[in-house]
């Protein structure tokens, strides 16, 4: 009789210990230390990467490790607020209340009032006897620590649909009870002749259909089960597929370093695996439902991993490494939820019984993933184009890993970082129009960064525009000054330089019309004609000056000093009609005269006006 009583109390002991672990009264963590892989228990998880059921740890060098289960380990005070971060559940009583959970529970004079934060459902329970109150992340259990040979009663008011009634049999398994109602009093009663341990009233805060099994022969789905039993067999009638779904985000193109399924076997007679493990090929998966073949009809990864093991025993067990099918999934999609599909083999029969969410959420299936995210690059093909007198259009191509881009503008210089200058755009589009600019006189520099949940790209793309009128006026002013000097000077090279400066004006104007003038318009064409005409005029003027100078040199004209005209000797200008002897005599005579005049000019006092 004592042995029987010990077995009957096992269910209560396990449940009570679990409640104490979660509430912090005993040392422990939600996940057993032996199943935390390489995660350092003291390391803080990344809050921005949390989901309701997962924690993600930054291991450095773009490497992350995620642990995700089916039980809620985080909560929100306002579940409709997408901006509110997920917070750690703390089941410690503060005075007469517990508030840091998916529910609020208040106790007053033996009555416990519970509000579901997600649904706003409220129920009040008053045990009519000495009941233990055991809190878990998703349930509140009111449990009588006694054998149910007669009855156990509770006063229950409010949303009674939140409440379920059960006890434990001699094997520690849940057993439904006969319940009678009189007013607000609910009485649990064992079946005739049965002796059951720990009659319990449970307030379920969170229902779950993220684990299921399906019979292969007719596709029947089994949901809300206390144990998920996968069955391999040569007979399709006895083959049962298994499925688990987790909410988790993994960026597309991440490198999967390792991936493992971990489950808690709850039977030492159904503890052998003979399955192939796939993942559903989808970016976002849906929960299981009662539709026939809801599990086998889902698209699966081409790759799978065989898991064959015998006599594993009760406790946590880890599958074969699932890196290959997980990599296939992540290479195809930016994943936000994952379904693992266990396909039974047909060569020999085995049964594998796992604890399900509805059996015990803390012992439900978990997934461990170690991955390295790819480097986020800045947007590509970043360009700026003027589309109006004071507006520009920016265009780019988003990096596949980005969720948003941030564009910063700076005047007469480039922003040093995202905090320098002015942010002009944050969004996921690939173009934007910016108005209110002064493109004629000011230069604008735009820099763009990619952004996702992991942060910003470490580099940026850049584009500049503006100041076109100032550039045009600068080129125009240079051409005008050179042209003016060329007309005041006889230097032929200066005139050629002036002509080339107008060619530069023409070339610049072709692709950069002044602000307010549309490219290709009549006014734009007229400016091009004027620039070309000025250049041609200056070149022709230069050619004319060159020709005239050559003619003057041929005539012996030059500059003069006082009473002396600098010119070539006559014999260098005209020699036709003379004999060779006459020419030599005349040349000698003129050379002597030229030398005398030159000598006198050098020694005479300088007076009078200069010619």
Average pLDDT metric: 80
Radius of gyration: 46 Å
Oligomer: single chain
Instruction: Give the low-confidence spans.
Output: 1-42, 558-568
The number of distinct helices, counting runs of at least 4 residues, comes to: 6
Q: How many domain regions?
A: 5
Main pleated sheet: 7 strands, antiparallel
What's the architecture of the largest domain in CATH terms? Sandwich
Can you walk through the features of this model?
It is a single chain. The chain is elongated and about 160 Å long. Helix 3 (468-487) runs antiparallel to helix 4 and helix 4 (492-511) runs antiparallel to helix 5 (522-555). It folds into five domains: 2-30 and 86-204, no CATH class; 211-372, Jelly Rolls (Sandwich), CATH 2.60.120; 380-466, Immunoglobulin-like; 469-555; 560-603. By secondary structure, the protein is an alpha+beta fold. It is 21% helix and 35% strand. The longest helix is centred in the last third of the chain and has 34 residues, at 522-555.
Brief descriptors of the model:
611 residues; seven-stranded antiparallel sheet; six-stranded antiparallel sheet; disordered N terminus; 5 domains; 38 strands; Jelly Rolls; Immunoglobulin-like; alpha+beta
Give the secondary structure arrangement, pairings included.
Elements: H1 2-23, E1 54-60, E2 63-68, E3 74-75, E4 87-88, E5 97-98, E6 103-108, E7 111-116, E8 122-127, E9 131-135, E10 139-144, E11 147-148, E12 151-158, E13 163-168, E14 174-176, E15 178-182, E16 185-189, E17 196-204, E18 211-215, E19 221-222, E20 227-232, E21 240-250, E22 255-265, E23 273-279, E24 305-309, E25 315-318, H2 323-332, E26 335-344, E27 350-355, E28 366-372, E29 380-386, E30 392-397, E31 404-411, E32 422-427, E33 431-434, E34 443-452, E35 455-456, E36 461-466, H3 468-487, H4 492-511, H5 522-555, E37 560-561, E38 564-565, H6 580-603
Antiparallel strand pairs: 1-2, 2-28, 3-4, 5-6, 6-7, 7-8, 8-12, 9-10, 10-17, 11-17, 12-16, 13-14, 13-17, 15-16, 18-19, 18-21, 20-27, 21-26, 22-25, 22-28, 23-24, 23-26, 29-30, 30-33, 31-32, 31-34, 34-35, 34-36, 37-38
Helix pairs in contact: 3-4, 4-5
